[in-house]
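Good morning,

Both structures are done.
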Amino acid sequence: MAEVRKAQESSEWVEIRNSKIHQRGLFAKKDIPEGTRIIQYVGDKITKAESERRGVVHHEKGMIRGDGTVYIFTLNDRYDIDGDVPWNDARFANHSCDPNAHSDIFDHSIWLIADRDIEKNEEIVYDYNFDAASYKEHPCRCGSEKCLGYMVGAEYRSKLKKLLKTREKGKQAGHQKRKKQNAGGTA
């Protein structure tokens, strides 16, 4: 059950430009005060079952294109918004581990909201809040000092940090073991 919405008028706050993070991004056209509803995330309103189906299709197409982008956003327990439509400029907001905005739902509408004052020309970024279960599928290029290299929500970062540290120790131990074996084998 797809609900097609009319074209979104451009937000007075943002414009789409090339991004250092990922291809294109949203940038402030003017200073944006903290708490401002910057832009609404719009698209087709779909059921969870349709969301699963489309998510797989979008992911497969994205892997072929090399961008891996899926623009499906959770609306509530029954519905999601598929933002992969030409009139959804909000889909260009990139993830960052040090965001200046967040998403929130008001009256069955998804909005990006400024977490702090955002300066003109600054890229609008928010935490996609992906869980740690499939972190390898979501590499992060935000460049933040807080970045672990993967798009994982703030609540999952400490868990992922521990996991990555454990894996790194395991790799180092394996490297040391191979180094000893090689040294012993050449004597």
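Second structure follows.
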Amino acid sequence: MVQNRSWKAIATTPVRKALGLMFTGAAKAVAPKTFEVHGFETWMDLTLEPGQPHVRTVSLRIPVPEVILLTRYSGVPNQRVTFTRRNLYRRDNSTCQYCGSRPGNQELSIDHVVPRSLGGKSSWENCALACLDCNRRKANRMPADAGMQLAKVPRAPRWTPAIEAPIARVRSSWEKFVSEAYWNIELRK
């Protein structure tokens, strides 16, 4: 987890990049148990606990930093979710927004509410998932012209992309640095 100078969680990053930021002095590692802040040199000198993840070099074993603190950056990065196919499927919960069916991702397509031929853009506010049958039925028309209605108005998602990590990579040490709201979300099955 990456924190800005104000100790606000702003991102996750691979271990390699975290160590690179520490080596250049752009970040320091935070010991999760004691909240001690370590530069690269003092972090390398720490004694590894049994079973603690580490990076092995030719002559060293460096503990993996689970939390790093940026030394210069105090802002918060752009919090908007990137418009991608994967994020659209996630936003719409792999569900047709016209009939409510969940046929599987292979049987879903992206529908432009205002068709591109009528000036519609590819954006959060103009795209929704539709099963193949509904997409064929709507064709190149507005939903009202096809006698169809969206289950919900398409909008940009509200989740925060900055600190997203696959659940298998979430560290228990992060609980001290991230709001309780993050840990109390309902996980999709």
